[in-house]
Amino acid sequence: MEKIVPHELPHVYTDGRTLYTHNLVPGQSVYGEKLVPHIDIEYRAWNPKRSKLAAFILKGCGTFPFEKNSKVLYLGAATGTTASHISDIVTEGMVYCVELSPIPFRKLVPLCETRADMTPLLADANNPEGYEQLVGEVDVVYQDIAQRNQVEIFVKNLRFLKDRGTAYLMVKARSIDVAKDPEEVYDSVKEQIIGGGLNVIESSDLLPYEKDHMAIVGVAMSSDAIVH
Ligand SMILES: C[S@@+](CC[C@H](N)C(=O)[O-])C[C@H]1O[C@@H](n2cnc3c(N)ncnc32)[C@H](O)[C@@H]1O
48-225 is classed in which CATH architecture? Predict the structure, then answer.
């Protein structure tokens, strides 16, 4: 096996093929991923077919603002696959995990009980008022919700983003319009995001890991510019 070394993005590791994070809870495999012990730490393999953020990193993502004390609003957390890797990084911060469906939420809760930097929120991201008091201002908004109105949901939740904060939208084109060319969908999504007050700084399709998906990253221009 190749040696695991730091990736060019902070707090991410690689053996040249597979990505890893430092496991915050040694011995815990969240979704069947491989654990690799190394002296006094443990690496946890980060599967790009299970996590769009890992797929985006392998596609050359250049924006990675996750730091030890970052606060992250994660919309569409499901059972916590990607959120757990972010939790491995933001150990002194918080990942607020919003999930609508009670079925994945039942698995998310015990995971969050093992990780002090993850808070589970059973809520509809269409109604951010429901978790406004709890969440407050965050450094990063990350959304992976396959709904027709996913962009509307994203823009609504930009109210939580601090000035100069970073927001990631994992777009599923076919959920927005099954008949339209995904490229047209992405152009329209970008326009809506810019209209919502974000400066789009990078984007990438997620092939070969996900078909008809695009990761879009933006930075909040100023709190005044964000339309609620
Ligand atoms: C593609 S899965 C997310 C996978 C997850 N992000 C990961 O990488 O581990 C999308 C999730 O969004 C949730 N979802 C759909 N609509 C939502 C809404 N309005 N508010 C919150 N979560 C929602 C679904 O229940 C589903 O669990």
Answer: 3-Layer(aba) Sandwich (3.40)
